[in-house]
From TrEMBL, chain A:
Main location: membrane
The keyword Membrane appears for this protein: yes
Top-level taxon: Bacteria
Record-given protein name: Sugar ABC transporter permease
Membrane-spanning segments: 5-27, 62-81, 93-116, 146-170, 210-232, 252-274
Subcellular location(s) per record: Cell membrane
Family assignment from sequence similarity: Belongs to the binding-protein-dependent transport system permease family.
SUPFAM superfamilies: MetI-like
From TrEMBL, chain B:
Single GO cellular component term: ATP-binding cassette (ABC) transporter complex, substrate-binding subunit-containing
Family: Belongs to the ABC transporter superfamily.
Protein name (Swiss-Prot/TrEMBL): ABC transporter ATP-binding protein
UniProt-listed SUPFAM superfamilies: MOP-like, P-loop containing nucleoside triphosphate hydrolases
Keywords per UniProt: ATP-binding, Nucleotide-binding, Transport
Keyword ATP-binding applies: yes
GO molecular function, one term: ATP hydrolysis activity
Keyword Transport assigned: yes
Organism, scientific name: Meridianimarinicoccus aquatilis
Length: 282, 347
């Protein structure tokens, strides 16, 4: 077969699959979102979801969570990745252990942390055992919004730092060791080597890791549902309740598009900030 | 003043002994080449001097100060790496100025020095580019410029030209030598290319399996190899060897001919001569030509004497056919003798 056509023929099945199961539903959802009750085009659905009193809170909660969780995960993943790549023996073992949470679904992760924080949970037994509290406390109530927030953030950090770690470990492995030797000879301290060499050379991996994490952070749902229930509304939770509690699929579609818009916006920002100039890659 | 003294340096990687008891003094502003086959420990020695590798024992002194416990940046050295290690995410300017920035020199001083060395290395027009937009030769120049910009006491180079093509290598060789002589730094230059070593060095240290076999000027290493290893490593083709038996005081018999030689009581010696130091003559060693290779400038003839192979370089006008018998006379003052037991030269 003609070598010019062959590559396109080979990617055809995947393209068809994506069109059928991704683009087509996406078009349907968009249609739904922009459809008015009478069947015409309108912004009605968007207006409805945005004006609902829970929208600003869920927007704030989602953004706040992402703003706290993602930087902490980034810092932790960078630290862990640097440590792992300095190890000579047992490196794979440590990586396996650190990536165990990756194998656990987000709902299961939420339930695990619920078992820690709930009234009859580990935390209470422990505090009771060492005598800090005399009877079990219910942490996850509307009186303690910050504890609810903290529990969700902790669960997310525990659950999803490893995905960044894996990407960053692979990225650090690509940086030739000679660069560090040159940096040593030319007087860069370990910290300077991290900020001047590792970090800039890691930009492609950082892009991937951050885009992935930020998108997932805006889609947070199951962990919040398990730990916060209705105490901590987030965008995805709102989408769910429009669709399945209120049976308003037009509003749910509008919410989904809003989340998509935010994700695309942040993706572009991340790609822009961490872009690598032409000719400047390893 | 940056005299380098290497005292009793040894290095082992686990059970493997990479360097055995190296002793070497390199004079201020000298250009010292470490020459040896792959795996003989050249890079290891250089990296110990740089502080990138820790010696198992021994001391390194630079300018009268012991430095082997200092970190690389405090040793007054700069280094050019084999794969250049030019930072891809920095422009050429920032690469050359990297060490100066780390020293927190003021901006105008950085600019002044970067522009000066960029001029020396003829890369002024590349200062704004990234290394991905440079050729291998240009990257090489950046690596050298980065080292020179530090104005170091000592500059260390690990096979800096080995990734360049032959023509560029020859060009860079001469240029590098000139620039380094001008900069008045002491230089240690690692290579496995003997032509590079001969043409650039003030002195060559020939290394073999973790030892320095001979440290001397290029011409001395070539004319008076201290050991059989040096004689057979240097020169292309290398020296010829023939067994010699005693034939009276200071007389040795080689392939039926008697030569004046050293006065020792050894039962056997090795007679050695360079291929270009043999001339066709009436009287001399009788050889049978096996392979004749016209190389333009001269004629390389591989012959057989007894059961030993023997190479001679003859004038390109000489007419020699395979199978032909040749009578070859060695130039008497170029004959060398080696002890087959110790492999060392015998005077
Ligand atoms: N980190 C290391 N661990 C184990 N062995 C090593 C290490 N570094 C070097 N060696 C061994 O030490 C010996 C000397 O290595 P070195 O790199 O100094 O050789 P070299 O003379 O520079 O060779 P080349 O011309 O190939 O660069 C080699 O046999 C090598 O296998
Ligand atoms: Mg080497």
């Amino acid at each position: 077969m003609n070598a010019r056509i062959l590559p396109y023929v080979l990617i055809l099945p995947v393209t068809l699959f994506l069109c059928l199961f991704f683009i087509y539903p996406f078009v349907l959802v968009s249609q739904q979102a922009f459809q008015a009750a009478d069947g015409g085009w309108s912004m009605e659905n968007f207006q409805e979801v945005v004006e609902y009193w829970k929208f600003p809170i869920s927007m704030k909660n989602t953004l706040l969570l992402a703003a706290i969780v993602v930087p902490v995960q980034l810092a932790l993943a960078l630290l862990m990745a640097t440590m792992v790549s300095k190890m000579k023996k047992g490196r794979d073992m440590v990586l396996y252990i650190w990536t165990i949470p990756l194998g656990i679904s987000d709902l299961a992760a939420g339930i695990i942390w619920l078992a820690i924080f709930e009234q009859s949970g580990f935390l209470n037994s422990m505090l009771h055992g060492i005598g800090v509290v005399d009877k079990p406390v219910n942490f996850l109530t509307y009186q303690n919004p910050w504890i609810v927030f903290l529990a969700i953030a902790l669960a997310e950090i525990w659950r999803a730092t490893a995905i960044m770690l894996v990407i960053l470990v692979a990225g650090i492995g690509l940086i030739p060791k000679e660069y560090y030797e040159a940096a040593d000879v030319f007087g860069a301290s370990k910290w300077k080597q991290f900020t001047r060499i590792t970090f800039p050379l890691l930009r492609p991996s950082l892009q991937t890791a951050l885009v992935l994490r930020v998108i997932l952070a805006f889609e947070i749902f199951a962990v919040v549902a398990a730990l916060g229930g209705t105490l901590f509304p987030v965008l995805m939770g709102q989408t769910y309740s429009y669709q399945f509690d209120l049976l308003n699929s037009g509003a749910a579609a509008a919410m989904a598009l809003i989340i998509l818009g935010i994700s695309i916006g942040f993706t572009l920002i991340i790609l822009r900030i961490l872009r690598v100039p032409k000719g400047a890659s390893i | 003043m940056a005299e380098i003294q290497i005292k009793n340096i040894a290095k082992s990687f686990g059970a493997f002994q990479a360097l055995n008891d190296i002793n070497l003094t390199i004079a201020d502003q000298e250009f010292m080449v470490l020459l040896g086959a792959s795996g003989c420990g050249k890079s290891t020695l250089l990296r110990i001097i740089a502080g990138l590798e820790v010696a198992s024992s021994g001391e390194v002194w630079i300018g009268g100060k012991r430095i082997d416990h200092l970190s690389p940046k405090d040793r007054g050295i700069a280094m050019v790496f084999q794969n250049y290690a030019v930072f891809p995410h920095l422009t050429v300017f920032e690469n050359i100025g990297f060490g100066l920035r780390m020293k927190k020199l003021p901006n105008d001083e950085v600019t002044r020095r970067v522009e000066r060395v960029a001029g020396l290395m003829h890369i002024e027009m590349l200062l704004k580019r990234y290394s991905g937009e440079l050729s291998g030769g240009q990257r090489q120049r950046v690596a050298v410029a980065r080292a020179l910009a530090m104005e170091p006491d000592v500059i260390l180079m690990d096979e800096p030209l080995s990734n360049l093509d032959a023509l560029l290598r020859m060009e860079m060789r001469a240029e590098l030598k000139g620039v380094l002589a001008e900069s008045k730094t002491t230089a240690i230059y690692v290579t496995h290319d003997q032509v590079e070593a001969m043409s650039m060095a003030d002195r060559i240290s020939v290394m073999h399996q973790g030892d320095i076999v001979q440290a001397a000027s290029p011409i001395e290493v070539y004319r008076d190899p201290a050991a059989k290893f040096v004689a057979s490593f240097i020169g292309n083709p290398p020296m010829n060897f023939l067994p010699a038996k005693p034939a009276g005081p200071s007389k040795w018999q080689v392939a039926g001919q008697t030569f004046d030689g050293p006065n020792t009581d050894k039962a056997v010696l090795q007679f050695a001569i360079r291929p270009e130091d043999m001339q066709p003559a009436e009287q001399g060693l009788v050889a049978t030509a096996k392979i004749v290779e016209p190389l333009g400038a001269h004629l390389l003839v591989t012959c057989q004497i007894g059961d030993a192979l023997f190479r001679v370089i003859l004038d390109s006008d000489a007419v020699v056919k395979p199978g032909q018998s040749l009578t070859l006379a060695p130039q008497p003052d170029r004959v060398r003798w080696f002890d087959p037991d110790t492999t060392l030269a015998v005077a």
